[in-house]
Amino acid sequence: MAEFLMPAEWEPHVRTWMCWPCRAGVWPDMAAAKRAYADVARAVAAFEPVMMAANPADADEAAAIAGVEIFPEELDDSWARDIGPTFVKGHKGDRAAIGWRFNAWGGKYAPFDQDAQFAARLAARAGVPLHPASIVCEGGAIHSDGRGMLLTTEQCLLNPNRNPGLTREAAADVLRYAVGAEHVVWLGSGFSDDETDGHIDNIACFAAPGKVILGIPDSAGHPDHQPVRVARARLKAAGLEVIELLQPRNIRRDGRDRLLQTSYVNFYLCNGGLVMPSFDDPHDGRARDTLAECFPGRDIAVVSALAIVAGGGGIHCITQQEPE
Length: 324
Hints:
By secondary structure, the protein is α/β, with parallel strands linked by helices.
């Protein structure tokens, strides 16, 4: 049995961590991105404390716009899920943080030296020991049921741009040691998300032990249609119940004609609440109804995520839970 276990996201949190937008080249509209981050921060703060890391030069601005506690710290980018640590708990309730090796999503952005150190700085601020991991991984690449089962994708974790030569078996050994993953369910490759190389938090997540929410493209012509069919088959083969979450109807692209990853799966659970993305899409309401059925008793806050996905991520990507 592993020493530590990654709790499920629906378990109680001490706080949520976020990072203020700062890499100018990522955002087509930096002001809109900051407003969107602030909207998410305020939505989460209605349920639990939020700590916003910000470059020292941006700290006053972040405090004024977001209205949450600020952690002045050097940053290269603003995706707290991926650059922050993954929190784990021991069998006696002791907490620790896993510091994954970070290489800016397969070397896509430079510089990233500050972000590569951020997990250690956050863990120190949270007052928990940091355990360095031996593989390149981002928080958005894994999802836990809190009982030793983990979801991830081959496209991301086994990608040569992160872990060249790494096998599924070797990766599973690291995940078992680091986050207590006794059973890893591997979804495949071919997903259209080439920004993160198929992060699981745009594709699927646990709704409860034994139940997985899977984002379903609106049409057979969507580039993710076939990879999702394979994902559904793998989830069912693992004995998991699959809850289908219809994805947005509208296909949106950025200024470089790349598909924007408008995924309703990229929501965030906080204490008593759920912060879900909306995309000014005909399926927004249906997605809300599906998530309400999956998480009865939670208040659902709907926040426009269009300005966030324009930078390459979603609401789950910009938040990281610190469990009690």
